[in-house]
């Protein structure tokens, strides 16, 4: 059984998301009726993960398109562009929603030039928006297959053990997952010995979400605290580290969940290949180096409280960056995409 984080009824134009703040205890779907609802859900991390942020944002626009009556193409075009621009402001680091904004701005502009009837243009846009769901699943299936094949050709030691970080599975996407898609594909090929997942402090995407996906889907998994990763690599066999990304830039530097960078450093020390798995919508060729990526900082309550209980003294200062940047040179296994697996230096040749 695969978890579904985003449910969209295309006939009715109704969107629901699985509230990820309540997992793993409670599975509650909540309706997203407006772009504002989507912005709130993204900001509060009821929905999270770079692809899911873009898809929920885009589908919230579809929900409004279904209900509204646009009197002109320029009104429709302004609504789409302004909505995307507002949605991008909810969380700055993941680039997928910016890519979606660019794509839909071009589609809308093309419609404005070709089509006279706003209703017809609205219907075409609506269809393009909901097709993002299926596109994401097929992209992730390709990422999974490419990554699993690459790891297996590099590795001749039997079944593989993977270490992953944060949550990159069905919950972070429309389905299947990116890094977790690679793990899923290894499992489908009967070649996965087991996966270690970090708990991923402070928000615990690993223990609350990845561990939940592994258990629900019968994938052999073991949870570790973030501080155990170096010891794990030394004491137990890890064939490869595979994580997702929020933004990969032109030189291969990659922003991903805080803690990714230290895993890459430790993997390098232990000679363990380190992979990023991400769709092309996560690659930002407009930025040349990771130092230019805007890193979101989140509120200190995520660090000083756990499940509503205070776990650090009042008055302590906190620094809570949600992401860090792993230099391309530490991505020793490669960047796994739907188009193939590339070294950071090969990536730039993939720019269209
Ligand atoms: O803060 P989050 O939970 O949105 O961060 C998610 C990650 O860092 C994921 O690794 C990344 O978005 C890839 S999800 C396929």
From TrEMBL:
GO process terms (BP): L-methionine salvage from methylthioadenosine
Keyword Manganese found: no
Protein name as annotated: Methylthioribose-1-phosphate isomerase
Statement: the UniProt record of this protein carries the keyword Zinc: no
PANTHER family linked to this entry: METHYLTHIORIBOSE-1-PHOSPHATE ISOMERASE (PTHR43475)
Pfam families associated with the record: IF-2B (PF01008)
Gene3D superfamilies the record matches: translation initiation factor eif-2b, domain 1 (1.20.120.420), Translation initiation factor eif-2b, domain 2 (3.40.50.10470)
Pathway this chain belongs to: Amino-acid biosynthesis; L-methionine biosynthesis via salvage pathway; L-methionine from S-methyl-5-thio-alpha-D-ribose 1-phosphate: step 1/6
Active site: 246
Main location: cytoplasm
Alphabetical UniProt keywords: Amino-acid biosynthesis, Cytoplasm, Isomerase, Methionine biosynthesis, Nucleus
Annotated EC: 5.3.1.23
Family designation: Belongs to the eIF-2B alpha/beta/delta subunits family. MtnA subfamily.
